[in-house]
TrEMBL record:
Localization (cell): Cell envelope; Endomembrane system
InterPro entries: Kinase-like_dom_sf, Plant_Ser_Thr_Prot_Kinase, Prot_kinase_dom, Protein_kinase_ATP_BS, Ser-Thr/Tyr_kinase_cat_dom, Ser/Thr_kinase_AS
Residue intervals of the Protein kinase domain: 128-411
Function: May be involved in plant defense signaling.
PROSITE patterns to which the protein is assigned, alphabetical: PROTEIN_KINASE_ATP, PROTEIN_KINASE_DOM, PROTEIN_KINASE_ST
Binding site for ATP: K166
GO cellular component, as recorded: endomembrane system; plasma membrane
Keywords of the record: ATP-binding, Kinase, Membrane, Nucleotide-binding, Serine/threonine-protein kinase, Transferase
Enzyme class, UniProt record, top EC level: transferase
Name listed for the protein in its UniProt record: non-specific serine/threonine protein kinase
Signal peptide positions (record): none
Native species: Adiantum capillus-veneris
Amino acid sequence: MPGLGAQAGTWEEVKRPSPDQAPAGKHEGNGRRTWSLLSSCASCWPQSPRERNAADNVSPNICEAKDAAPGIESKEGPHVCTVPPVDQSIDACKLDATEHSKNEAGPVASSQLRRFCFTELQLATRNFQPDSLLGKGGFGCVFKGWIDKHGTAPVKPGTGLTVAVKTLDHNGLQGHKEWLAEVTFLGQLHHPNLVKLIGFCIEDDKRLLVYEFMQRGSLENHLFRKGALPLPWNTRMKIALGAAKGVEFLHSGKRPVIYRDFKASNVLLDLEYCAKLSDFGLAKDGPEGDKTHVSTRVMGTQGYAAPEYVMTGHLSTKSDVYSFGIVLLEILTGKKSMDKSRAIGEHHLAEWARPFLMDRKKILRIVDPRLEGNFSIKGAMKVGQLASCCVRRDQRSRPSMSNVVQTLSQLQGLKDMASTIYPSEGQGDSCPPQTRPDTAPYQPKGF
């Protein structure tokens, strides 16, 4: 989910309006990019002027009397906040998350989510002010806000708990079903490598989600945003391992959860570059028993979706493995999953990289040049070999996410930097060259 972190999100190209239409004052310096993003988020904001100005004349304590029964108006002096009943479909769509108790913290019950009224989030984001805007995704716009550390009341900016508030864009690509999926999955699954869902708001046609704030933004921004400093090699390996652990956790239950939308923009980073998966709007329960897949409508992002899923609609955990392999290639090469400026037949990163990945000595040729040789030789070779295994056309020969985690765990903190050491011969090979790379079973060795 783009936008939960600082400067996260996709900046859409929108024609800049005339000067008298553009935001005035201190926001002028943000230029075309900020105004483009604001313009595309108009449908996320309250529609009526009265509703937009509500927060300007309301006490911060407007909702502090929310202990009344759901659906009952709570009053404290002249201020009123109506808390509508929660959509019954939230209770009707619960997961059996106890299977994921491998995490020592255990699953988080949906009853532990905080329930906000709209006015509280309006105040927390300073009435959805432009300078609170973080980004925009398929669901809608994301704003920075501040709330009480232990409750739902808005607090002064810079105090309390910093959060990211995602609002539903009724003209966007996602809707109530995706909002409900987020509440269902993230409300009951808890892991250090999943973004924490703090609470939600459902009032009339308004749908909002409140997440922990991720200070470093998205992996996509660090890899591809113009002017961004290149991520150091060891930081890239830390991010890859953290993201892999998040997907492994989702797959670990008796009935796995298939993420279905693993991509660089949905990998968010905290202050210490700990990777956390976000945006569970497309997540789906996986197959049970002896079933190998579930059949579903094809959804996701071009360039990341597994080919067998795109062609047949058959979804399995190996679909997530393929998507992870694409992101691993992005981390290795610094190139986007889709780039139409590449030669015909090579627009897709996997197809462009495949000839290099089949020869481990050629892998070093496609390492992100911005690293200027400051990468581990052994690490780069192993990452290339692992990515090659993940993006095999035959899904049965792709590794499990547990295998991926095992491999990446052994690539942390390597010091054989290419800028100072020439690669030695005889290193182990995850995908033996004498076997066909698209059919050989995954057998990690040589670590």
